[in-house]
Fold:
Amino acid sequence: MDNQTNRERQAEALANSQIPGYVPEETKTVAGTTPSKNPPVAVTPDRDVIDLSGAPIEPPTDAEIEQITQDVVEQIKTVYDPEIPTDIYELGLIYKVELEDDRTLLVDMTLTAPGCPVAGEMPVWVQEACQRVEGIRRVEVSMVFDPPWTPDRMSEEARLELNML
Structure:
């Protein structure tokens, strides 16, 4: 007898359905019916993925890195913590921004508290903001909690805005 519960099977099926091209090995049937005799066939995409970012493929020059840095900071400053009326850059929530030679932008960020209600949404906001910058092909945002955020990480501008000076 199978030790997997119906709920676990449903969760696994849901997770597997998110995998592009995945076809289950066995077809689930309704009680009393016979399974399909056709074996599953791997699904292949019927088109190629085309990079529409417009960013060149060659590594960025020093001048481009300087411009991209300014643009990234400007874009990150458009993302606000909904509970605090200050942008996340001035709050000190951005720990690292790194542009790789293939023009992938890597961002490490944190939250003011691990239980933040927008923990799942804020990295997406940062990713979307950074994708607007010319010269970047891809953006990867990682959530980190080490070192933990403290108010000491806030800029003077943020402290002034929050009356913490």
User: Anything to note?
Assistant: The beta strands are 94-99, 104-109, 138-143. The first strand starts at residue 94 and ends at 99. DSSP finds five helices and three strands in the chain. The CA atoms of residues 156 and 165 lie 8 Å apart.
